[in-house]
Amino acid sequence: MRLVVIGGDAAGMSAASQARKRLGEDDLAITVFERGHFTSYSACGIPYWIGGAVPDRDKLVARTPEEHRKAGIDVRLRHEVVGIDLDRREVVAHDLTGGGETREPFDHLVYGAGAVPVTPEWARVRDAGVFGVQTLDDGQAIHDWLDREPRPRRAVVIGGGYIGVEMAEAMVLRGLDVTLLEKSPQPMAKTVDPDMGALVQKSMRALGVEVLTDAHVDGLETADGRVRAVVTPGGTLPADVVVLGMGVRPNTALAREAGLPVGPTGGVRTDLRMRVEGVEGVWAAGDCVETQHLLTGRPAHVPLGTHANKQGRVAGINIGGGYATFPGVIGTAVTKVCDLEVARTGLTSKEAHAAGFSFVTASVDSTSRAGYYPGAEMMTIKLIAERRTGVLLGAQIVGRAEAAKRIDALAVAAWNRMTVEEMTALDLSYAPPFAPVWDPVLIAARKATEAVHASL
Amino acid sequence: MRLVVIGGDAAGMSAASQARKRLGEDDLAITVFERGHFTSYSACGIPYWIGGAVPDRDKLVARTPEEHRKAGIDVRLRHEVVGIDLDRREVVAHDLTGGGETREPFDHLVYGAGAVPVTPEWARVRDAGVFGVQTLDDGQAIHDWLDREPRPRRAVVIGGGYIGVEMAEAMVLRGLDVTLLEKSPQPMAKTVDPDMGALVQKSMRALGVEVLTDAHVDGLETADGRVRAVVTPGGTLPADVVVLGMGVRPNTALAREAGLPVGPTGGVRTDLRMRVEGVEGVWAAGDCVETQHLLTGRPAHVPLGTHANKQGRVAGINIGGGYATFPGVIGTAVTKVCDLEVARTGLTSKEAHAAGFSFVTASVDSTSRAGYYPGAEMMTIKLIAERRTGVLLGAQIVGRAEAAKRIDALAVAAWNRMTVEEMTALDLSYAPPFAPVWDPVLIAARKATEAVHASL
Fold first, then answer.
1. Which of A23, B15, B91, B108 has the fewest CB atoms lying closer than 10 Å?
2. Domains of chain A by range and CATH?
3. ipTM for the complex?
């Protein structure tokens, strides 16, 4: 059997590795086409490399092409797949280093083409200091740009989601003057509720980032092949480097051309085993697929490395003759802005409303450790619970050290459709160095329970 | 109506406060009898006060008697209840300051007498430097003893459970030479499996504690009203202060005398609303009660502040005319030995075996953050899953910073009877500063799933 994988990052290589684990080279030949220079890297780590916390690019690579090859996976870097022929069951790939075209037959195909940054027409300028942050090649390009003489001094980051805030911080750490433009009234508007986003905004400003909200961009000014400014209705912002953090969309051009089904979110549709719906022997995984939101029951596109790894693993196990499923997501995410930790799971108020839920919210302030224990830090937890049933629909945490990872307990509670009243009895860990005697999660559950009762 | 509460710490005062919140002074008179000098204190914080991390005893007091009195709760300190008359529905209390006897009638009674340290016959010496660590008065006595001249220099801690290891560390921080005696082959033998306990032992030795395992105590040597040594079969250990960490038992002497039902674990039996079984208007909560272990379905005695607070709150809500239940526990606990974090939930291997489960275990080593992110620390996670069904029965974590609180996600999973295979799909938070792309919890679930498959 022959397995061909399109895309050599998290999803594709997890699929390849899991399939290889189950089937030896005599039973399965595996060929991976990767457009860039790297395999199995942490795109999520790019801001930390740019910012200097991670000293070396290669540390972001979990497994090199050579390591994969040693495991019996034929990795072809700088090869871009330009066509999928489902009738002949082969893919057509271009060697980007100038070596012509390859046609590779497959019995199984994994489509792991990832996502592409949303790039407005005005931002489509090449080699001018305008960057998306999607691949390690993107990261390398930014790194190189920042090292060029004359050194960029002013950065404009467009979009205040994860990538935007992380890259803004990275640029500050590199010594640049940074302006963040966010079209909403506060950063992380898709991630957390406005009251929580306001805390992020405060933290970013304390870090020295100029945050412009309700901001729009008309275009860029370039000169001598370099970006010079970002043009907004409110004025022109000088910029030596521009980072796009306006979101991503599934990279499905090839998939659509081949007739693979694409869902309402724009991602390739798969079943629970990551098999492309209705197409025998074709699998998809990672940022290019649509998945299911387990709390709304509706399709969702959530491009995160953690899902890509899980989905790729599931595809690979199934290709290898095993059985595994990826049931869906509940919207958990976490990030860090300076020393402010931000986490969420489930639905924000806006998302819950859009899904048709009637709900109550409750916010509490508490501490990471017993109040009397050294190092106790404040945190705010907000819960969203369905009216009447009290089912936990969402949770958000903003705090300092030891705050954000508490989201996992809330994620498991939401995954299991617990009510906030049931949650008040949860046997969570307590000792003074780790929590007040009522963990903030329990305090929040208590307050949300009261809100549910009041809503009856 | 009249509510009388026996015991003014977590359980009793939570009950009193919740009842007061729902019923004003015209509807409910509340009298609390407390034998000691303090109310609503964190007994769990005592080792940190002794060790110096918490500078001031009063920081351990969440609410003082005066604060409770202001809220309309008649707190009588230094009053020991010596009898409960269920027929006349009154309690008899002695004023320990010498003021005679009070008889106090009640409509509702909350029994919150706590627990008492297991104290062998040879350890029953008064004012000689031998201490349990159960009440803040105990803590004060230890603190005073360590400040006496000539200053104690050598401490022996008997018992390597939470209290033992925490007090051993506290004594080291106070500059004493510390020996810990543990009857099992490693410390924390009731808390974690031997392989995890071995890691604790290593950490304690690194801290400078002499850990003697498989150790027994024959008695004490005293001279001039002070302890001088601990006598063991292996020799005599000089000691200027001895701390007992041999466990606690429910303080039920009064309850038994009054005919309140006591279960097989020695704790007072209650229903889910914390009403003493079969006795109208009498409630019990905290370290003196028996609860239900939700994974074994069997009675359990788990004396922890977090349960005491929850149970007291539930009793108070019900007394106040509301509705709340305490469904039981799953055995979650956490502690810290120097910079080693130790956490558990569910059952240990020994407990799972005793309950009749056939099970598999899986241990993984991973890191708290992405391996390339600064500050990533190693941790070990061990899972115990039922054979065939794969239901999560227990989890243990030993690691450095940011390790232990991950137990909460596992506790919520166990609470909801998830299988380890279901857990591999959990949507836990990921970003490089918070986890590797596969959170250690997920890696452990994957490995445990393989072990379950292998057990089929």
1. A23
2. 2-114+248-319 (3.50.50.60), 119-244 (3.50.50.60), 333-454 (3.50.50.60)
3. 0.97
